[in-house]
Every structure is written in C-alpha cells, then in structure tokens.
Amino acid sequence: MWPRLRKSCRTWSIVLSITLLIGILVVWSWKKREDENSRNDYVSLRLLNNQRDYIDHKGVHVVVGHYIGDSVDPMKAPNITKDLINKNMFDPRPFEGKDGNPVLVPAKDFYKMQQLFQINRFNLMASDRIPLNRSLPDVRRKRCIMRYANVGNLPRTSIIIVFHNEAWSTLLRTVYSVINRSPRQLLEEIILVDDNSDRDFLKDTLDEHVKNLKVPTKVLRSRRRIGLVNARLLGANHAKGEVLTFLDAHCECTVGWLEPLLEAVAKNKTRVVSPVIDIINDDTFSYTRSFELHWGAFNWDLHFRWLTLNGRLLKERRENIVEPFRTPAMAGGLFSMNRDYFFELGSYDDQMKIWGGENLELSFRVWQCGGSVEIAPCSHVGHLFRKSSPYTFPGGVGEILYGNLARVALVWMDEWAEFYFKFNAEAARLRDKQPIRARLELRKKLQCKNFEWYLDNVWPEHFFPKDDRFFGRVS
Q1: Cα–Cα distance for residue pair 165/167, rounded to 1 Å
Q2: Rounded to the nearest 10 degrees, what angle do helices 358-368 and 397-412 cross at?
Q3: CATH class name, domain 397-458
Q4: What is the tens place of the pLDDT at every residue in 97-119?
Q5: What is the pLDDT of residues 283-318, one digit of tens each?
Q6: 328-346 in b/e burial notation, b at 16+ Cβ within 10 A?
Q7: Is the dihedral of CA 246, 43, 154, 365 positive or negative?
Q8: What is the largest distance, in Å, between two alpha-carbon atoms of the chain?
Q9: CATH 3.90.550.10 domain range(s) in the chain
Q10: CA nearest to 287, candidates 302, 277, 273, 298
Q11: How far is the C-alpha of 276 from the C-alpha of 263, rounded, in Å?
C-alpha cells in the first residue's frame, strides 16, 4: 500500500510541476507580447546609458518637477570675469547633439567646461557646440501622429519667451525649434522679452539676428528687473495672436508639439493647456522622453510636484491616451491660453515678484473661476532642468518666493491658508505685507468658487485635512 502511495505522489508531483511550468510560460509569453505592443505604440527613441538617472525600470517613464533651490550669482564664482560672461562662445559642430544624443566634451577641455558651467548653471560648453537647428527624435505615440495628421483650421498663436541673461545657444535653439517644428500658418509672431539682461550679445547682436528669421520676431526690453510675471505680461500686452503660448528660454520643441495645444484651446477658450515636459540634461544636453501618465499638484509647502496617476484615473487615461486630460495644477513655464480669456480672467497677479508661485495662482484661478487646466499628452517640449539657479533674486530667494506663495494662499485658499501658514513660518511672516484687496475683488467679480470646491471636485485625491480626513501624528 505505502509503495503504491509514494508512486502516486511522485506522479502527481510531476504533473503539478509540468502544469506550473506551462503556466509560467503562458504568463511570460503574454507579458512579453503586452510589452511589445506597448513599445510598438511609440516612435523609436534611442535611450542611452547616461540617461538612467531620469528613467525607471520600464525605460521611458520620467517624472520631473519645477526647480526650487538656491540662486547663485555667477559674478561671485571663482575665475569668472565680466569679459568672460559677456563673450558669446557659440561654436557649433555639425553633428553634436544630433537626434537628442548627449554631447561629450573632450577631456582636455574639462577645466574650461567647469569654469563656464558657473555662468548659467548648466554645461555652457556643451550647449555652444550644438547647432541651433539640431534634430530631435519624434517622441509621440503613433496614435498621436494619426490623431493630429489632418486637423482643421486652428487659431494663430503668439509665442512669448522671457529671458534674463540667457545663453545665446539655449535662447536661440528655443526659437529655432519653434520655427522649424511648427506649421508656419499657425505662428502669428515670436516675442522675446528681455528682463533687463546685461550681456552684450543679448542686445544689438540679438536684435540684428532675429530680423532675418522666417517668422516675425521682435525683442521687447525692460529697463529694470521686473521678473517673470511682469515680463510675461509685457509680452502678452503686445501680442496679436488669438492664443498666447508661453515658453521658457531654454526649451526645445519637438515635431507636432503645437497642434494639440491649439486644438484644445480652439474647442473651448476656457481651457489652459500644457505640453508633456521632457528633460534636457543640464550636463550633456541629451533629450529624454518624459512620462505621460502623471499630473501636476503640490505639497503642503505649496511647491509644485508631479504625481503619478493611479486607480480610476489611470484606467481612464489608458483607455484614451491621446486626448488632453485635466490636472489640478500646471508647472507654469509652458502653456497655451486664449488671449481674450487670459485678460478676462485677470491675466497674472502683477504684485507677484520675480518668479515663484505664479503657476499655482493661475491654476487655482482658472479652476475656481470656471476654466480648466489640462495636459496634452501628444505635445512634447523639452526643458532644461538645472540643479541651481544662476539668477539673482533682489531681496533674497526666501523673501520673494514665500511672499508670492503667501499671496496665493491669502487670495485663493480660504481657511486652508491658515493650515499653510502653520507649516510655513517664512510665509506667515510675510502675510501681512501683501496688498491683496484688488485680487480679492477680482475673485468676487468673477464669482469664483471656494477652495473646498477645488479640493472636492478637481483634486479629490488630495491630502489636506477635511471633515472626512485628518492630519497629524498617532501616539
């Protein structure tokens, strides 16, 4: 009896092992086919070893955020002279950076490269070796290419780019990428707004250069430092296009970037639409495709953050991956908006200084006053992300940034403003210095909803305290 039982057990063990092996092979085959199908939905993009810092285990998914850090005055860096800063060292090599590949500076130039890095807080030598019209990969999904292949009549746009002591190569590569990768009939003009730069090559030399571009391009200049918000307002006030498209001065647009933005705004003028923001490496200038399945939000410090979609939202996006989707907040540097709606809604808060917080202020205002903030997954624009800022902040970074954020909280966050101030002593210190009466009157005039409506309807996944959720420590 026992020998027979042992034989039966051995037989069952063999059968079970074979069944398990077949199951593993089936699952592996299915998973491989799924991955191949996912990859086939992308146009080919070569990813390189030095891009791993930005890429997760799937090879392409990247989450990026707006820079918040210390500012560094280049004139206080060692071995940096005024003559060096004012010298335009643009020296392009025909194939450097081609197709978004990294630039490798020869070892003999390392010392000079590190010296020049201090000027703009990125690898200026690498940037200056890349042609202004360098090629980039088409990073769109195949369905995006088909979706926007035959769009109808779209509104014309004014491209507004603010710069302050920007490098020649990054500024003009931004401009050339707009011209080379946008349908000509959609470009009304390009407006460069100089926020009181003191670099010699950004004055008459720049004026002469832009006169010869294929798209009407003009340079507006401020005689004093007015900051990003007021410089953008200066550009918007001079713009003629039906749509305003704002870009930072160190971007590179990819093919097909503009049509998804303009189509969304054309369908509903209350939509404010941003592209997917890809990454330009600050050291090698390699171009890395970013992740499309995330949205913008913010933390308790009111610092912008990218959050990955999950659950219901992720399922909805996967079912309709090419259409613009709503986001609680935008990064703020890159977006398109109907010009009339921009001014009807109160444009920018012109009491905000230099830079910081204007993206959340506009996001809250758009949502609470009847519009929507969206991301167009078929639009990709590369942005140069730095680890520190080369710009000076008159009055100090903290004074400027937290003063701006205090304005945002006081005007738009209602009782949640007190929650913010309890966690941010710097902002609380500056709250009483903010003249906000005009913005509160604007909110009343526009009949805007309260911040609780925003949390309940725009970002129900939020982590702020409410009656049905709590914040604190369990002891």
Answers
A1: 7
A2: 10
A3: mainly alpha
A4: 999 999 999 999 999 999 999 99
A5: 999 999 987 778 899 988 898 888 887 777 777 777
A6: bbbbbbbbbbbbebbeebb
A7: negative
A8: 102
A9: 142-384
A10: 277
A11: 16
